[in-house]
Amino acid sequence: xxxxxxxxxxxxxxxxxxxxxxxxxxxxxxxxxxxxxxxxxxxxxxxxxxxxxxxxxxxxxxxxxxxxxxxxxxxxxxxxxxxxxxxxxxxxxxxxxxxxxxxxxxxxxxxxxxxxxxxxxxxxxxxxxxxxxxxxxxxxxxxxxxxxxxxxxxxxxxxxxxxxxxxxxxxxxxxxxxxxxxxxxxxxxxxxxxxxxxxxxxxxx
Length: 205
Known about the structure:
3-stranded mixed β-sheet; mainly alpha; 7 helices
């Protein structure tokens, strides 16, 4: 199977990060040329993700999540959402590995067309389900997030405002860390007042 690739270089000497593009073969189905990464076996050489899970990861010695979604009626929303959770988790795993290695496949919720320019920084992971969407669509995505709206495992979570959502997405993506930098520590220690609040703040750094 042949796939079109569009590469993004973070700098002239950077390795390539690619998405598998939508093929423009007139009259042919374009929905099944997308690769998904299996969180259980780390494979992506299949075209039907749900069938792969059932064939390879169900049964007495299979994954509990796979056996659980099989209990729902076929084509039901609950079944589709549980499959989506597993699919998204695997895609997030490969995306994080790709970003760390600065090369490899990147899987977004919606792929750009072959003519479109794209870069990884345009995308961020949903803090709830970990699907990578355009940063500009993160807020809108909350309404359809399969994890946030899963009433079986969690209560209905409130929508997060755009600023906080972007911050949490960057934390999930590893773009920012929880540990303060040395420069921030130095600046705070030299400028913060030596009162009760300042003493407590220094102890937490």
